Amino acid sequence: MKKLIITAALTGSLPTKANNPSVPISPDEIAQDAYACYQAGASVVHIHARDRSGKATHDPAVFQDICVRIKALAPELIVQLSTGGRAGMSFESRRACLFSNPEMASLATGSVNFPTFAYSNPPQLIEQLAGMMCERHILPEIEVFDTSMIAPALELKRRGLITGRLCFNFVMGMPNIQPASIQQLGHLLSMIPSDALWSVSGIGANQITTTLFGIAAGGNVRVGLEDNLYLQKGVPASNVSLVERAVRLAEEAGREIATPAQAREIFGF
Ligand code: MG
Fold first, then answer.
1. Are the C-beta atoms of 171 and 177 separated by less than 8 Å?
2. Which of 14, 91, 140, 179 could bond 128 through an S-S bridge, CB–CB 3.0 to 4.6 Å?
3. Residue 203 above 80 pLDDT?
4. Which residues contact 104 (CB under 8 A, 6 or more apart)?
């Protein structure tokens, strides 16, 4: 059985400490949490930056600060920075994290409605972000919120704007996006090349469902407070508790957990 790569999505752009006191906000909190998740079994951390007031920021200095702190604590942990952002944000803002030269960065290859706003990724912006990642040898993780986001990723690969391994994360189970259903996962898998890597993440209570999907179907999983604030109904989670749960489920299913070194090999770094 393939080794399981666990990605911990620590912060996101929306959750606050009022929602869950364990959400890491400052660069130091994010780095400490990344280290704890690494010790628990995560080999990748997916990172968003916040300013001093706790709001999402695209300040390259904050991303850089977070990267330096994580590398000091866990040099082998794979850092994946988020290029996500609100509608209307320019390429200049959305690319900010790429100046830190992370090993990976997220790349949404289409637009979609989130519960209360549109997540806008126009074709030109996608191409600009992919081009900059390509120049800097940053591996994109394609964030797939709906079926229509696969074809543009395959096209980037065909045109040489993605040179590394195709690597997808299927985000499922939020209002207005694709459902966290086994039928939808099967459909997505039918659309990607057999040598592509894939991971799955579920929003809210769907996180455990998609974790089981990923483990059972031979994919990888993403867990963390960015996507889900609760371990179970009424029980607030921490990032570490969510990674630990994924590890427990994988062990029960006979899936070994990839170390960061093994994950590096799988990604082709
Ligand atoms: Mg994100």
1. yes
2. 91
3. yes
4. 44, 78, 79, 80, 81, 138, 139, 140, 141, 167, 267
Distance CA 222, CA 143 (A): 11
How many angstroms does the Cα of residue 183 sit away from the middle of ligand 1? Answer: 24
The CA distance from 142 to 109, in Å, is: 7
Ligand 1 centroid, distance to 105 Cα (angstroms): 10
Q: What is the pLDDT of residue 87?
A: 76
- 199 token code pair: 């991971």
**Each residue's pLDDT tens digit, 68-93:** 999 999 999 999 999 999 878 899 99
pTM of the predicted model, to two decimals? 0.98
Helices (H) and strands (E) in the chain, counts: 9, 12
CA of 47 to the centre of ligand 1 (A): 7
